[in-house]
Amino acid sequence: MNASLLVLELRRTRLQLGAYAVVVAIYGAVVAALYPTVLETAELIEPYLELVPKGFLEAFEMGGGISSPGSYFGSQFFQVWVIVAAMFGIGLGTRGAAAENAAGTIEIALSTPLSRTRYLLGTIGAQAIGMALLAAVAVVSVVAVGPLIDVEFDLGAFTVVGVLSFAFGCAVAGVSTFVSVATLDRGRSIGFGALALILMYLLIMVAAIEPTVEGLKYLSAFHYYRPAAVIDKGVMPLGETALFAAVALLGWGLAAWRFRTRDLVS
Amino acid sequence: MPDVIEVSALTRSYGKRRGIVDVGFAVGEGEVFGFLGPNGAGKTTTIRLLLGFLRPDAGRATVLGLDAWAQAPEVHARLAYLSGDPRYWGELTAERFFDFVGDLRGLRRGAWRPLAERLELDAAVPIKKLSHGNRQKVGLVQVFMGDEPLLVMDEPTTGLDPLIQREFLALIAEARAAGRTVFLSSHNLGEAERACDRVAIIREGRIVAVETVDSLPRRHVHSVELVLAEPPAHGTFALPDVEVVAANGPDVRLLVRGDLNPLLRRLAALEVREMALATPDLEEVFLAYYEPERTP
Question: Within chain A, how many helices (H) and strands (E) appear?
């Protein structure tokens, strides 16, 4: 990895990252601030939730009712965070190869002694750092509000959710990076990423509603993103985190291989 | 003089689209070599193959003895490149951009400064806020700021304003004096004549000539534009080495390959209202010398 390239990539990411981070921070703080009110009104809300199919509630992290911190933050905050992170991951993942190629700027770096692999590693490094910061902002935005509302959130549990979220975001970025390198077309790369996420969202919804196709949920990345259990039960999602990490590494690895062997056709 | 660039039987297509076919030439150390051809002839494809951006279908390109595709980073350590349509990260200042590129090329920090000062480029301004002329200076500083033995430039003079063009020619002369090798593509023959020692001419993907600048056929080709008092009679310009390129009433455009005197004698018998004699552009040189005879 080249330090200059990494710094440049981070510098060029800062506005995008800043915008996403502000949205996440404000939203996280608001959701956290509303938690006491939700607790007070849980008795009124939960009877309505009982009308919703249990599988559907579990699919969207509300299986434990609205009053448990895991269900509340899992459904109301991290389910939104994961969409934001996916958008961020697709945006960053498609930038290093496809967008720079379309813009004609990729030749600047690649006509220097910097190898294609090191170039891509620089952009991947920026993706990982950006995603880590976005996950950290999500955790801090919730936990920091705790003292203000006299609620003690479990920093350890939320940190573990942060790690899981980081791994999820990296998986999205990894796959996007590979598609970006394979196509060198940012529009198609973003379209593929968005379509894949929508399909996976539909899969988990259909699987939750229709028991005969319940098995489809295993095809959805969202099935493996379960922050509620981490917060409520202190379960370490090692398998899920490892799965996301493996997908990320596979995507980045394939991208590096393909980038090294393909033509750069602008 | 050892060869810095060696290209042999280099072939590359884009699916069904022609790229280049069986291209071969060599560029010696310290030489300024022009790669000439009309748009779409295969100049950029050749340069992209030399830089290892594309993998050849057949043939080989080496730069300083290194394979252009397989050893691209090593090749890039020995050259500076300016693309035909240079794009920059506009949000960066020119200064930051030069430091970034310089760092990747292993140049000392601030290596760009003397050249930027010479070209009167304000490097503290974000590139997107620079004028067109100043963005052209960014490209020149980028390519000339180092000490790599080879400079590769794809149509570097296209759109350059005259003052910058003069600086460009001076920088090329300095590079030559310093023993650096320059490979530049162009579709402007006049420029190539001023800057280059030798040129290769590529047409429809194939090399049609590799010549010293002095032996370029263009010196013997003239474009003649006439406005006559009345449309010429059929066969008026049926002279050896004279070709009617266009005729529209009294307006006639001719291409003369060789001696002008037979034409001048013929014109003496006509009432000529206007006459312009020009050196033809490269396309016309190709038509005159490298294509089968055109039908009048």
Answer: 12, 0
**Full-model pTM:** 0.83
Tell me the Ramachandran region of residue B272: left when phi exceeds 0, alpha when psi lies from -120 to 50, beta otherwise. Answer: beta
In 3D, which of A83, A185, A79, A167 has the Cα closest to residue A127?
Answer: A167
Nearest to A167, CA basis, from A231, A226, A241: A241
Which of B207, B196, B167, B186 minimizes the C-alpha distance to B282? B186
**Residue A111 is nearest to which of B51, B87, B89, comparing CB atoms?**
B51
**Do A111 and B79 lie within an 8 Å CB cutoff?**
yes
> What does the alpha-carbon distance between residue A69 and residue A35 come to, in Å, rounded to a whole number?
8
B101 with A112: Cβ contact below 8 A: yes
Cβ pairs bridging A and B (under 8 Å): 59
Chain A residues with CB under 8 Å of B100 CB are: 4, 8
The model's pLDDT over A76-111, given as tens digits with 9 standing for 90+, comes to 899 899 999 999 999 999 998 999 998 889 999 999
Enumerate the residues of chain A whose CB falls inside 8 A of the CB of residue B54: 263-265
Each residue's pLDDT tens digit, A132-162 = 999 999 999 999 998 888 888 889 999 999 9
CA–CA distance, A245 with A185 (Å, rounded to integer): 25
Angstrom distance (rounded) from CA B79 to CA B73: 10
ipTM for this model: 0.82
- Report CB contact under 8 Å: B104, A107: no
Is A14 within 8 Å of chain B by CB? no
Candidates A8, A103, A264; nearest CB to B53: A264
Closest by alpha carbon to B86, among B164, B153, B175, B131?
B153
Cβ atoms of B202 and B46 within 8 Å: the answer is yes
**Tokens found for residue A158:** 């939320």
Locate the DSSP E strands across chain A.
Answer: none
Cα–Cα dist B184/B8, whole Å = 18
The H or E element containing residue B126 is none
